[in-house]
Amino acid sequence: MSGAKRTYVSVEDRELRRLREQESRLRQVQQDLPDRIDAVRRQAQQEMQNRLRPIEDRQRRQEKMVGSLKSDLVSLEKDTQKRLKQQRKEFMGCLKDQRGEYLQIFKEQDIKFTRMVDSERNARQHAVDNLQNQINAIVADADRKQDAAASFVSDLSKIMTEMETLPHERFAPGEIDTLRRHVEDAQRSVNAGMPEAALSTAQSAFWELADLRALVQAREAEFMLLYQAALEETRALLEEARSHRKYQLDIGIEGKSDTIEMEVDHWSHGALSEQEAKIKAVEARLLSEADSLTIEETRELLSELEAEKPVMTDIVEQAKQNILASQLRVNIADMAVEAFQAQGFTVADETYEGEDQRNAYVVKMINVAGSEVVTVISPVPGEMGRNEVSVHSYDQTYVDDATLRQRAEELVSVLREEGLETGTPSCSGKADPEYQDMEQVRQRRPEQVRREARR
User: Fold this and answer.
1) N or C: more exposed end of the chain, with fewer CB within 10 A?
2) Tens digits of per-residue pLDDT, 173-185?
3) Cβ atoms within 10 Å of 298's Cβ, excluding its own
4) How many Å apart are CA 177 and CA 180, to the nearest integer?
5) Who wins on pLDDT, 302 or 123?
6) Which of 130-139, 140-149, 196-205, 329-338 has the lowest average pLDDT?
7) Burial track 2-17 (b if 16+ CB lie within 10 A, e otherwise)
8) Percent of the chain whose pLDDT exceeds 70
9) Are 396 and 366 within 8 A, CB to CB?
10) 271 to each of 276, 278, 311, 381, how far by Cα in Å?
11) φ, ψ for residue 409 (rounded to 5)?
12) Which whole number is the average pLDDT over 363-385?
């Protein structure tokens, strides 16, 4: 057709701003999110109680083991168990009380756990001289030093056996091997009738073992605190994602109110599903690697979760703006109809590309001479609130460029009268034949729409 031309007009976001101002509210269909998040946190804490049960059982075994000791290590171990019990009580309080600002909490906990190890070491320090005096007395008593050394090393072996039940390889890998050899050396000295050597080796091994035990238990507590925070935050974010699936958007235009139920995943182009899948992947890792994750890995997962917190709000906001922009395209189409009706055209058909409201809006008009004008209002990718209007002219007879430009200028005039900011119209090649067939426009697949948007 000799008159097939297209004209472009850039339309800025003043109209979208007007829609935003008239938007009365955005509300969740499900409004009990705080209660639901509290419920998932309680469930996560119950799961944590189940994970703590083996640790509590282990502690009871340790306390029972102390009661079976025969040497001068009994009083030292009893004092140690009292301190460890108090530390566990404080730790359980941290598990129940933690909320929200985890990263700041754990900066403080880093200091606390370091102090916990130092405190345990310092608390034992006053007992060093006392134990040393006892050992000196044993060595000076030739008649009982062999039996005393055997009893001391036997008790140390019991403590070592309980130490083996701690997750030392996970939180202090390789550090127990040297201690194990020292205990074996002390036992060999006892067997060889060398009590002085046995006591000297055993005493050194006991202090190192006590330090290692305090370190492992502190690191285990640190991991559990981090793990619990990560698990709770994961579950809370997943619940938030579920609650954000649907919203109701109330929009008031020209004194009328319209309520639209918004599927956030649809209007965010799948961003909500992607976010939910990302969080589920973290949850799956936490559950499958609960017995192997390191403290640093768990801390990194928690940092990732913290970074994801504002994303959900951004996704909902993006979906809201997309639905408003879709409404704007319909409004612009109405203005285009008004402009071309003044030039003798009447509406023949109109639809969204692919019948998807997220895509361009297309309106076709025709005049008595059989000439057709198709107006396409397309969102500009990456520029919220900005649309590009292309006018495709399919004329049965030759129409000069001046006439085509006049059509575009009439449209621009109407848009400006309605308060939209527009650029200067420009002619750009032949009209796209795919927009002349409205059935083809309706049947357009999403990948076709994306491909044409990039042209």
Assistant:
1) C
2) 999 999 999 999 9
3) 24
4) 5
5) 302
6) 130-139
7) ebbbbbbbebbbebbe
8) 74
9) no
10) 9, 11, 10, 16
11) -65, -35
12) 86
Residue 100 DSSP label = S
Closest C-alpha to 241, from 207, 273, 209: 273
Decide: 130 and 167 in contact? Cβ < 8 Å. Answer: no
Retrieve residue 366's tokens.
Answer: 């025709």
The position carrying tokens 């000295």 is 189
Bridge partners (DSSP) of residue 427 are 7
Structure-token pair, residue 365: 């008009």
356 in Cβ contact with 449 (< 8 Å):
yes
Ramachandran angles phi, psi of 395, nearest 5°: -105, 140
Residue 144: count of CB within 10 angstroms of its CB: 14
Residue pair 365/343 in contact (Cβ under 8 Å)? The answer is: no
* H or E segment to which residue 349 belongs: strand 346-352
Kindly state the percentage of the chain with pLDDT values over 90.
24
Nearest CA-CA partner of 227 in 304, 303, 306, 299: 299
In this predicted model, what pLDDT tens digit does every residue of 245-262 receive, in sequence order? 887 766 655 556 667 777
Query: Helix, strand or coil for residue 164?
Result: coil
φ and ψ at 379, to 5 degrees? -70, 140
- Averaged pLDDT for residues 160-179: 91
User: What's the confidence (pLDDT) of residue 455?
Assistant: 46
Give 279-321 pLDDT, tens digit per residue. Answer: 999 999 999 999 999 999 998 998 889 888 889 888 888 888 8
The number of beta carbons lying within 10 Å of the beta carbon of residue 366 is 18
Residue type (1 letter), 377? I
Spatial contact of 79 and 127, defined as CB atoms under 8 Å apart: yes
Q: Torsions phi, psi of 431, nearest 5?
A: -65, 145
DSSP result, 413-439: HHHHHTT--B---EE-SSPPGGGT-HH
Question: CB–CB of 380/328 below 8 Å?
Answer: no
Over 90: is that where the pLDDT of 157 sits?
A: yes
